[in-house]
Design brief:
- Helix 4 (89-126) packs across helix 10 and helix 6 (146-157) packs across helix 7.
- The chain has helices at residues 3-10, 37-66, 78-86, 89-126, 128-143, 146-157, 161-185, 189-197, 202-213, 215-239, 247-256, 260-289.
- It has twelve helices and no strands.
- The N and C termini lie far apart (59 Å).
- It is globular and about 75 Å long.
- It is mainly alpha-helical.
Length: 296
Amino acid sequence: MNAISVRAQSQGHSPAQGRGRGRGRTWPRFRTRPGSPLGRRAWMAVPPVLVAGLILAVWYSVSYLALDASRRFLMPPPHTVATVAFGDAKVRADIATALWRTAQVAFTGLAAALVLGVLWAVVMNHADWLERSLFPYAVMLQCIPVLALVPLIGFWFGFDFFARVIVCVLIALFPIVSNTMFGLRSVEQAQRELFALQRASRWVVLTRLELRAALPAIFAGTRISAGLAVVGAIVADFFFRQGDPGIGALISRYQARAQSPELFASVLVASALGAAVFVGFGWMSRRCVGRWYHGA
């Protein structure tokens, strides 16, 4: 056995593996390096882009194949929506102003729902009899059709900004209550016993154990309620026209005037607002609890 064979066997290769371009020569094995974070993010963006392309293809098919020219106003093609609605400076300014007003109402209602929902869940978590007394009313509040309450809210609180915020709170409250309650009850028994051995007060257990353990659930409920708050602001705009109405009133006006491109543009912008709020709270969840909670 020569020196080359001894060197190949010491590296885990047989002498036959080195036969190729050079006789008796060993070639190194190259390992594929894992993808970079930028590459992984690019691959994660591929499926949504493909779905968006499929939606555009279906949209064009319906506009040009299913509808004739006289009925194409029912679903104008995407390029018509882009040129007629977003290309017009006045329409673009009206949509931007209405979107800002809707965002103000939605974020105000979401903040109020977050505070009320967490407080409601903390009170119910204090004792079982409080949960049995209060949780059914949270379920009833979720089951009541909001459209039936909107006229009453207008009669009681007026038809301006405050009434629209109340509608957002009613729609966005229940997911925060239920998810916060689930997070408070999900604390491990061993951790509770540890705090009991230290004779921690009820306030210390709540602030340093239960609320911290419930943060992932609270963020999950807030992400759901964020989209519902946008829906509530748009629904309230259909009924409350006083003050500064938002994107809902603009959608109603375009519908009454049969301005299809502007109507589609308003709906797309409202959907984009809901999606942006959902993604934003997902980013906040990863920044706050993503280091110690892998499901964030």
